[in-house]
Amino acid sequence: MQYPKPSAVLELLKPITWFPPMWAFGCGVVSSGVPLEGHWWLLVAGIILAGPLVCATSQAVNDWFDRHVDAINEPDRPIPSGRMPGRWGLYVAIIWTAVSLLWSMMLGAWVVYAAIVGLALAWAYSAPPFRLKLNGWWGNAAVGACYEGLPWLTGAAVMLMQQPDWRIFALAGLYSFGAHGIMTLNDFKSIKGDTKIGIASLPVQLGADNAALIACVFMAAPQVIVIALLLQWGQPLHALAVAGLLAVQALMMVRFLKDPIKRDVWYSGFGVPVYVSGMMVSAFALRYAPDLAAAVTP
């Protein structure tokens, strides 16, 4: 049997994609209010689960089920190039799925639940019969949940070893909703290819201008709600900080909307980091919310 080289396996797992869920996991850890002292191993184990395991699994699954398309569009990728021989792309996806589940079991029941949902969405996104990626509404929602919402909840659950506070669910859900818009930004660069192979991304379905407007609404609206919630939870400074970050994004959105096809990479590169900065600000707002902090046992 021919085996793939470790470098090909690593390329298949795409380490560059691991940052978003790892960042969201960190937001969950912060929002839990649990001090890191004495819990460092939980932080490290959770980051490994969010990035090198669950996220990496999603990348392997996606590349396996996209191998025929990649053979046309990106023949240098590990599977179509032959550096991942035979069915090893599928084997890696299955092995990483199993390892992710086993790893999650040492971090508590709520982490296991989150891992199961995340892995199920990863397979449903790419694999038939669901192939959620064929429709921008469903596919972007699945990726947003896997990259932002579920890792955030996992980070909180890892530290708390129990069901997180409802406010953590609220923030994770809102920023996950906003990530739907981030996923739409990634689709502008492949409008022609998606149209040719039958992927109904939002830019393909709605046209570039309408899809750009939808992406901006999806990103901005949840942050407005976050600001209102932070004010209600008695965190006006954090709310002001998120409002400031949203104002910066709004200025960028105005420029992006004038020519979304030309400026999608620019907005992804500068607007998205501002968006995820607001996630961490919101996480710290919860960490220092008096009633939440009082409920956490160090």
Question: What would a concise description of this structure say?
Answer:
The protein has helices at 6-13, 19-32, 40-65, 67-73, 78-81, 88-104, 109-126, 136-160, 166-185, 191-197, 202-206, 208-232, 236-258, 260-287, 290-295.
Describe the structure.
The protein is mainly α and 298 residues long. It has a single domain (6-295), classed as Farnesyl Diphosphate Synthase (Orthogonal Bundle), CATH 1.10.600. The protein is built from 15 helices and no strands. The radius of gyration is 20 Å and the shape is flat. 78% of the residues lie in helices and 0% in strands. This is Chlorophyll synthase ChlG. The chain crosses the membrane at residues 12-34, 40-65, 109-125, 137-160, 166-185, 206-231, 237-257, 269-289.
Range of helix content: over 70%
How large is the share of residues in beta strands? under 5%
Give me the oligomer status: single chain
CATH class: Mainly Alpha
The outline comes out as flat
The helix-strand sequence is HHHHHHHHHHHHHHH
Number of strands: 0
- Give the uncertain stretches in residue-range form: none
Q: Helix/strand-derived class? A: mainly alpha
> What is the name of the CATH architecture?
Orthogonal Bundle
Number of helices: 15
Distance between the termini: 52 Å
The count of domains is 1
What does the radius of gyration come to? Answer: 20 Å
Overall pLDDT confidence: 93
